[in-house]
């Protein structure tokens, strides 16, 4: 078993739980084939198949059903990645943040999904360091906290398919970070 596999987190509650023993991090996540760190986020496990199946089988009603299923917050599940260097696709859980990555005071993140006509009837899922931080509706704002210095945020649709790109930032003790999203990070 590799060090990376041994360092995967177990589901330990919400990122807002100040007594949480393990903080999620994707900073040291690397490709298992080439050890490259330039990773593209594809979404959660099984996302593409679910999207195609629900869409074909139930159409617009399938979208609303998938939307209601996707609203469980503060969960871990494997995330699919593709290495930009070698093309290897793999899935991984977040790693445990190293002690020097953990902040003394949380940083508050304010995430705004800017209004958009396309997809306005369904929520999208916001992920912080490989952990689902919450679901967000069109034109809405959510707030969550991180106790980790280096952070990666990505967004998935109701099926778990990631939107292109991700947002990275370095959190400060007791600081704030504002993120705007409209099908891509602004």
Strand order of the largest sheet: 8-7-10-11
Bin the helical content. Answer: 10-25%
CA-CA gap between termini:
39 Å
Order of helices and strands: HEEHEEEEEEEEEE
Rg to the nearest angstrom?
16 Å
Number of helices: 2
DSSP summary, beta strand count = 12
Structural class: alpha+beta
Low-confidence stretches: 1-6, 8-21, 48-71
- Percent of residues in beta strands: 35-45%
Average predicted confidence as pLDDT:
80
Task: Outline the biggest β-sheet.
Answer: 4 strands, antiparallel
Question: Keywords for this structure?
Answer:
three-stranded antiparallel sheet; 12 strands; single chain; alpha+beta; 186 residues; globular; 15% helix; 2 helices
Describe the structure.
This protein is α+β, with helices and mostly antiparallel strands. Helix content is 15%, strand content 36%. It has a four-stranded antiparallel beta sheet, with no helix packed on it. Strands 2-3-4 form a three-stranded antiparallel beta sheet, with no helix packed on it. A hairpin with a 5-residue loop joins strand 3 (79-83) and strand 4. The chain is globular and about 40 Å long.
Brief summary of the model shown:
The protein is an alpha+beta fold. The protein has two helices and twelve strands; from the N terminus they run H-E-E-H-E-E-E-E-E-E-E-E-E-E.
Please render the helix and strand layout as text:
Elements: H1 3-6, E1 24-25, E2 39-44, H2 47-69, E3 79-83, E4 89-92, E5 95-96, E6 102-113, E7 124-128, E8 131-136, E9 141-148, E10 150-156, E11 167-170, E12 176-181
Parallel strand pairs: 6-12
Antiparallel strand pairs: 1-5, 2-3, 3-4, 6-9, 7-8, 7-10, 10-11
